Amino acid sequence: MIPMNTIFEVAISFVDQFDRGMAERLFVDLAPRLTGDVFVYWRHQDLLAGKRQEDGFGPIFRSNSRVVVVLLRPEWGGKGGTLVEAQEIQRRHLTGDKDFLYFLATTTNARLPDWAPPSLVYYDLTKYPIGEAIEGIVEMHRRRTAAPKPALSALAKMRLQRQSKKERNEEQWFLESSEGRDIARQAARSLLDEIATYVESFNRDNPDFRLSFRMNRMRDQVLIAYDKNTAIVSWDDPISKGNTIPQIVYSECDGLRQLRYDEAVPDSPGNVHIAIALIPRIQDDGVAAWLLDESDPDDRYVPNWIEKGRPRVFTPQEFVEYLVERILARALAE
Q1: pTM of the predicted protein model
Q2: What spatial distance separates the first Cα and last Cα of the chain, rounded to whole Å?
Q3: Spatial separation of the C-alpha atoms in residues 246 and 65, rounded to whole Å
Q4: Nearest C-alpha neighbor of 185 from the set 147, 229, 241
Q5: Contact between 31 and 38 (Cβ < 8 Å)
Q6: Which SS3 state, helix, strand or coil, does residue 147 take?
Q7: Strand 288-292 relative to strand 272-282: parallel, antiparallel, unpaired?
Q8: What domains are there in the chain, each with its CATH number?
Q9: Buried b (16+ CB within 10 A) or exposed e, 129-158
Q10: What average pLDDT does range 155-175 have in this prediction?
């Protein structure tokens, strides 16, 4: 028998009439990956027997769970157990716990509750595979259970800042050298090839959301488009462009015009939604990752797995997924 004060790793709230099968799938996939119990009501009847719904479900969703997953549909929160669960989840959110809740839409007409801000994690199971949602839930749980970093003294912070500045300067000096530029350019070309491979695979697996794709190897540039939403990823050569640091420029726009050598630029500056730089980060093995140089100015279309409003270092695979998800999110929002 599970003790009354058990803290569940994940608690799943759902409308039994419609989403029991999906809840069971989540339980089966999540339970082996977490160290404690996953709550679905029919597997924990001993905790609920003889209690009012407020006394049985209430504590679990109010405080006795690290992560709460809601299988969202219009019927959720309307009556019965999900009404109690919704009330407790809302109270928990409004009292300051902001990073415990993961909504999974199971119908096309599912809508977030009125009290839920758009920043809450929302994943549409009618459009995207459940496997990615499970990875997101596991990652949320990991962040909530990670040990806090020990506080640093002022002297330790100063030493870290000096070391960080020294490393950044050394990296910049290297990237300004001919050897550094060559490594960065090769990494950029590898990234463009990665984009081409990913888009080809994506189009095979998602015939209803086929992406238009074009690569200009002479210009080290790729174009990806869905409907009228276009993303341009271009290598920005420091020699020809007059930059100090080599970088990739990523931009999104509504319209394009073609110049000679088939180079693409936006129709007008007003059509550009976002234009950001990815700075190469040289690793010990010589392979570059990519630093998003500034926070995203339009984070409505940032995937849930990205930490919004902050710089982030991407692996090539992560950046490609980020790129495609942004294009589709912008198109589907229109």
Answers
A1: 0.48
A2: 51
A3: 47
A4: 241
A5: yes
A6: coil
A7: antiparallel
A8: 8-145 (3.40.50.10140), 154-333 (no CATH)
A9: eeebbbebbbebbeeeeeeeeeeeeeeeee
A10: 72
Higher pLDDT, 321 or 175: 321
Q: Using an 8 Å Cβ cutoff, are 213 and 196 in contact?
A: yes
Residue 189: Cβ within 10 Å count: 13
Cβ atoms of 312 and 211 within 8 Å: the answer is no
Q: Which amino acid is at 25?
A: R
How many whole angstroms separate alpha carbon 10 and alpha carbon 89? 13
DSSP-H helix ranges across the chain: 16-30, 45-48, 53-56, 58-62, 80-94, 130-145, 154-176, 178-205, 238-241, 316-333
DSSP string, 24-84: HHHHHHHGGGSSS-EE-GGG-HHHHTTS-HHHHTHHHHHTSEEEEEEEE-TTTTSSHHHHH
The 8-13 sheet, strands edge to edge: 38-39, 8-13, 65-72, 101-105, 121-124
Burial grade of 163 (CB within 10 A; 0-12, 13-18, 19 or more): exposed
Q: Which CA distances in Å does 281 have to 220, 234, 248?
A: 19, 17, 12
State residue 77's pLDDT score. Answer: 92
Q: pLDDT per residue over 33-83, tens digit each?
A: 998 899 999 888 887 887 888 888 889 999 999 999 999 999 999 888 899
Do residues 213 and 192 touch, judged by C-beta distance below 8 A? no
